[in-house]
Write a structure and sequence with these properties.
heterodimer, A: alpha/beta, Rossmann fold, six-stranded mixed beta sheet, 22 strands, B: mainly alpha, two-stranded antiparallel sheet
């Protein structure tokens, strides 16, 4: 560690609108090390990678590469500087051959300007051999390869040009255990050649398996950089969580002792979980049950399967003890279930349509007679819902797109509340909502529960779940890892359950 | 969209119509300017005879375009309406020339048969494209060939003629110079406007074009709404077939070639977005008028039909570019 750092980042800042994605990030990369970046979703890892790879410009701070100032203006500039990224989502052209994919950035040409196929295949062969992938034929279309091989081909592509830093963004998210091992062998080989590897992962056991040092992110800041031999996984989780936050958020609601069961799920098998342990749990009447877990842990899949938004492979849903047959959203709504979806722009709102039309979408029957709309009644319904949720709007005829994030979310809530569901499923109910509106939404949800509604809340923000929920169920790898009651809450325990699992199943990437 | 609610009383009730008027204002002004230009450029343009001509000429395209509006609003397209019209015309032609029945019975039978034939094609388009989530572009391209082939097969590639006198009379009847068949088309526009703006069905047609997933998750049977939109398009193709037969007194298996493109053009010029969710049937009415007035006026001022075709094409391109900006402004 006497060598001067290859890359040095200091006090880096980057905001989007008013949100500080990076709020003081500093760390150094030594030549030839494998360096892990860890932290919760939204802690700033992805933004940092985008800055390093020339996708975003940074606002303040300093990056030096080999002692010279480094400020890539484009992904191309970053590649020229020798920084390569293998993204979580594949950037492969599925119908082209392996060789074509590997050479896509700079196709070799003959003197006539035609594609030099022989040279292209030769280069691809060399690139694959370099990472030990000698069993793959370079003329195979990528579509015919498995996910693991595709990942490795992306790595081969990244490495074939002169690269000094290889960034792997959650490379194991879709790999099985065996494939992951192979990837690690390849990473070790890359390291032996003197390439520095940055490894972003949610899986601490992997971090401890192959990395030399680890840098922990929290809320857009780097908390610490440690040699892997100096810390334990528990230490890293503690760094990720941050002690102070945990104390501050504790004990803000009382328990709502549930009288009877509102909804129970028995042996639910989602399409993302064909072989693992199926999901079973109970939701008591007047209870808010939280589901924690990492992105891709299967939380959304469970909600969607209960609601009938996606087909399920098996399992039974009981409402107040009675089994209900749910073949689609229509059945779920008729049974008394509402579903506030994760992405209000894609699934929740009809953005071009007025607030009033959005508010009545679930309960159009109440504002129409024999199929004819009653605009007066619809306006009343929207105004009532708006007043109940303290919606701030200009006119009810304004398009939903004109509202702020928090108010849009209130319209989605109003739409579901119009039918007074017995059970409300909420997926990331305050994503993209400002702090004030967040508190208001919490207040609304508590009031509804006090009136006897039951809720399941999926959230990636642990403070939100800790504040809101009576119990928290933690998922990882499509399975329930454990359920915590309020006295047992701590971010640490939740994260241990969420992270502390060897992933063997294939999971859906975020 | 912000300038919509200037009326103090009951803004919701008038909202849809006012918004559609504002959206259509540009198209309306374009149409007025066009009429102004042609009436100066040609003394015949505003004559009673020529107006009757224009109304007659746009009728079939307008009927087809009304149905097409429903399909484009849900984000689909129907390339088969020209062929389906021919198919419906042949079926109706076979029915109306059946031996041994009175004129009234024959006419009723023919109208029912033609409309039903059109609707069956539309239902097939809708069921196949919605059930397997296939692009309607391809499915209706298939139907374009199937319906045309069926029309030729059933008719033996022969033109069918000698219809009851009352039927022919209906096709050429005028009320104060206005063709009755045009009034039928206008009635369809009014009905379509009512359905799209005043009913739950219409609301969800717009909703599906805007955000299908939100409508589905709200518990509405999106599949059936899609099938309904395509059936309406087939139904109007059937009605267009009856009008076509009544006007020309024949029923030909090669009728309606290329009509789908004019119908789509009328809808797009009328400001309905090809990606669905935005637009109105009033716009479609104006769009059909623009195409009809251009065709008539350009010929009157002595330009060839080829030049007319080029200019119509240009208008379509301009309309889509304008729609691009309209979408951008409404998004911001």
């Amino acid at each position: 560690m006497t060598a001067s750092p290859l890359l040095s980042v200091s006090a880096l800042r980057k905001s989007f609108g008013g949100i500080h994605a990076l709020d003081g990030v500093s760390f150094e990369l030594e030549p030839g090390e494998v360096h892990a970046l860890v932290g919760e979703n939204g802690a700033g890892k992805s933004t940092l990678i985008k800055v390093l790879s020339g996708v975003h410009m940074f606002d303040a701070g300093d990056i030096t590469l080999d002692g010279a100032s480094y400020r890539p203006a484009s992904p191309h500039a970053a590649k020229l500087a020798g920084i390569q990224v293998v993204h979580q989502e594949f950037n492969l052209l599925n119908d082209l051959s392996v060789a074509e994919n590997i050479s896509i950035e700079a196709m070799p040409k003959t003197r006539l300007g035609l594609l030099d196929r022989a040279e292209m295949n030769r280069r691809a062969r060399a690139a694959l051999d370099a990472i030990g992938l000698s069993d793959v034929d370079v003329t195979t279309p990528v579509r015919q390869l498995g996910i693991a091989h595709r990942q490795l081909i992306e790595i081969a592509r990244a490495l074939q040009s002169e690269s000094r830093i290889l960034i792997l963004d959650e490379p194991t998210a879709t790999l099985t255990e065996r494939e992951t091992e192979r990837l690690f062998e390849i990473v070790a080989g890359i390291k032996a050649k003197g390439v520095t590897v940055v490894f972003v992962s949610h899986h601490l056991e992997e971090v401890f398996g192959i990395c030399d040092r680890v840098t922990v992110f929290r809320n857009g800041e780097t908390i610490t950089t440690q040699h892997i031999t100096d810390v334990t996984p528990a230490d890293v989780v503690r760094f990720m969580v941050g002690r102070t936050l945990e104390e501050a958020q504790h004990g803000s609601t009382e328990m709502h002792p549930g009288a009877g069961t509102a909804l129970s799920v028995d042996g639910l098998r989602t399409t993302a979980n064909p072989t693992g342990t199926p999901v079973s749990f109970e939701l008591r009447r007047g209870e808010i049950l939280g589901i924690a877990g990492l992105v891709g842990a299967g939380r959304t899949e469970v909600l969607r399967a209960i609601f009938g938004a996606d087909a399920k492979l098996g399992g039974t849903v009981y409402l107040e003890g009675q089994p209900v047959q749910i073949n689609g959203p229509r059945d779920a709504i008729a049974a008394g279930i509402g579903f506030v979806t994760e992405d209000r722009k894609e699934e929740g709102l009809i953005l071009d349509m007025p607030i009033s039309a959005n508010s009545s979408l679930v309960d159009l029957g109440a504002v129409s007679r024999r199929g004819l709309l009653n605009f007066g009644k619809e306006r009343e319904m929207a105004a009532r819902g708006g007043a109940r949720l303290k919606l701030k709007y200009g006119k009810l005829s304004d398009p939903a797109a004109s509202l702020s994030g928090g108010n849009q979310q209130k319209v989605v809530l109003a739409k579901w509340l119009a039918k007074t569901p017995k059970v409300l499923l909420l997926d990331e109910p305050t994503r993209g909502v400002d702090v004030g509106a967040k508190a208001e939404i919490y207040g609304i949800l508590r009031d509804l529960v006090a009136q006897g509604m039951s809720m399941i809340v999926v959230s990636s923000e642990l403070p939100e779940l800790i504040t809101l929920c009576d119990r928290i169920m933690v998922m990882a790898g499509q399975e329930i890892q454990g359920t915590l009651a309020r006295p047992d809450y701590s971010q640490e325990r939740i994260l241990h359950l969420a992270y502390g699992q060897t992933q063997t199943e294939e999971r859906i990437p975020a | 969209m912000s300038a919509v609610d200037t009326t103090p009383q009951s803004p919701e009730k008038t909202r849809m119509s006012i918004r559609s008027v504002i959206n259509n204002a540009g198209i309306g002004i374009a149409l007025l300017l066009m009429i102004l230009f042609f009436s100066v450029a040609s003394e015949h343009f505003l004559s009673a005879n020529n107006i009757t001509n224009i109304l007659t000429q746009i009728t079939i395209n307008l009927v087809l375009a009304v149905g097409m509006t429903f399909v484009i609003l849900i984000g689909g397209i129907d390339l088969s309406v020209g062929s389906v019209m021919a198919f419906a015309a042949v079926v109706a032609g076979k029915a109306i020339t059946l031996p041994g029945l009175g004129a009234t019975e024959l006419i009723i039978l023919a109208v029912l048969a033609g409309v039903l034939a059109g609707m069956v094609c539309g239902i097939l388009n809708g069921v196949v494209s919605a059930y397997w989530s296939l692009p309607s572009f391809i499915i209706t391209l298939g139907m374009l060939n199937i319906a045309r082939g069926a029309a030729l097969q059933i008719s033996g590639a022969q033109t069918i003629y000698s219809f009851p006198f009352a039927f022919e009379e209906f096709g050429s009847m005028l009320i104060y110079g206005v063709p009755v068949v045009f009034l039928v088309a206008l009635a369809l526009v009014v009905i379509a406007w009512f359905v799209l703006n005043r009913t739950v069905f219409g609301r969800l047609i717009y909703g599906i074009g805007n955000n299908e997933e939100a409508v589905r998750l709200a518990g509405h049977p999106v599949f059936w709404y899609k099938v309904a939109a395509f059936s309406i398009c087939g139904l109007t193709a059937g009605i267009a077939a009856i009008i076509y037969m009544a006007r020309l007194n024949i029923s030909s298996p090669i009728a309606g070639i290329g009509f789908e493109l004019n119908a789509i053009a009328a809808v797009i010029i009328g400001g309905t977005s090809l990606s669905g969710g935005r637009g109105s049937v009033i716009g479609t009415l104006l769009g059909a008028f623009i195409i009809g007035v251009l065709a008539n006026g350009l010929i009157l001022i002595g330009l060839s039909d080829f030049v007319r075709q080029m200019i119509t094409g240009l208008v379509i391109v301009i309309a889509v570019i304008l729609d691009h900006y309209r979408a951008k402004y409404s998004a911001s």
